[in-house]
Each structure stands twice: as structure tokens, then as C-alpha cells.
Design goal:
alpha/beta; Rossmann fold; 5 helices; five-stranded parallel sheet
Length: 121
């Protein structure tokens, strides 16, 4: 059975590109357009990895991570930030919230797959 990856981004184009990359490697991909939708998906599914944007409406990526880490279904699940933000203080805030890793947009498909395979199997 394919491992499930949750992608959370307010940009449908980014969700589509990430989804295409991961599905092509055999993963099952579910999507959310913001952190609040992501929490709902996390609670409804068993996911092997979450890939989340930072800047989104309703609930941003940092708040998603904080909420996910308080939810029994989010404890221990690797969470990678995929964002255009490169500021060290934002990376530190993400790590403090519980992010496992950080990738920059635009993303390299091979790097995304390598990180996904390492964290999700």
C-alpha cells in the first residue's frame, strides 16, 4: 500500500506540482489549501509525511505545525516546510514549532523525492 503524503499550500499550482512529483514516485497524495484544512486531513488520515507552506490564509504553516504536534495523529509525523521564505529566524521558529526540515521554492523534484524517501520511506 502506498504511503500517504499530505501537502498543504494555498497555491493550487504548487499542490499540483508537488502532487505530480510524489504520485509519479508511487506515493498517495492528499491536499489542503491552508493549515486548518490540513489539521482536518491529518485527523482523518494516517499520513507518513506532511509538506506545508509557511504563508497561507486561515492558518499559516507554523500554526499548523504547533497544532499538529498537539494532536495525537501528528505526534512523530515528519513535517517539512516548503516555502519561499529563507530567513534564519523563520527557520528557527519552524524548528521550535516542530518542523523536521525546510525546503525552498521553487523546489527541485529530485530533492523533494530524496527528502520524502528519507522521511516517509
Amino acid at each position: 500500500m502506498a504511503k500517504t503524503i499530505l501537502t498543504i499550500d494555498d497555491s493550487k499550482a504548487i499542490r499540483d506540482m508537488v502532487g505530480l512529483t510524489l504520485r509519479g514516485a508511487g506515493y498517495r497524495v492528499i491536499e489542503a489549501a491552508n493549515g486548518a484544512e490540513g489539521i482536518t486531513q491529518l485527523q482523518a488520515e494516517t499520513v507518513a509525511l506532511v509538506i506545508v507552506d509557511l504563508n497561507m490564509p486561515v492558518m499559516n504553516g507554523i500554526d499548523f505545525i504547533r497544532n499538529a504536534r498537539r494532536d495525537p495523529k501528528g505526534i512523530g509525523v515528519p513535517i517539512v516546510m516548503l516555502t519561499t521564505e529563507t530567513k534564519a529566524e523563520l527557520k528557527a521558529e519552524g524548528k521550535a514549532a516542530g518542523a523536521t526540515g525546510w525546503l525552498n521554492k521553487p523546489f527541485d523534484a529530485d530533492m523533494l523525492l530524496a527528502v520524502t524517501k528519507k522521511l516517509a520511506g
